[in-house]
Specification:
35% helix; 2 helices; 80 residues; alpha+beta
Length: 80
Amino acid sequence: MAYDLEERVHTHAVAAIVIIGRTPIEENKQRAFEQYRNGLKVVLVVTFDELQARLESIHQALMPKPQDEPEPIEGEDLPF
């Protein structure tokens, strides 16, 4: 089936996202992982715990703020 499009659609610089593993605990492994990850050009590597932290941050930002309840006025503090 042929489609007659007025404009041709082209994609350029399509990036991929890979969600893998957990963030290393040891400092030397963290450094090696960051160097590897930063060396990738068209692939964004995110660990499961980084994704969880991002989602929790988004969830927290979208939660309604709790309303401050006014302090109850004691009998002696009543203006009348």
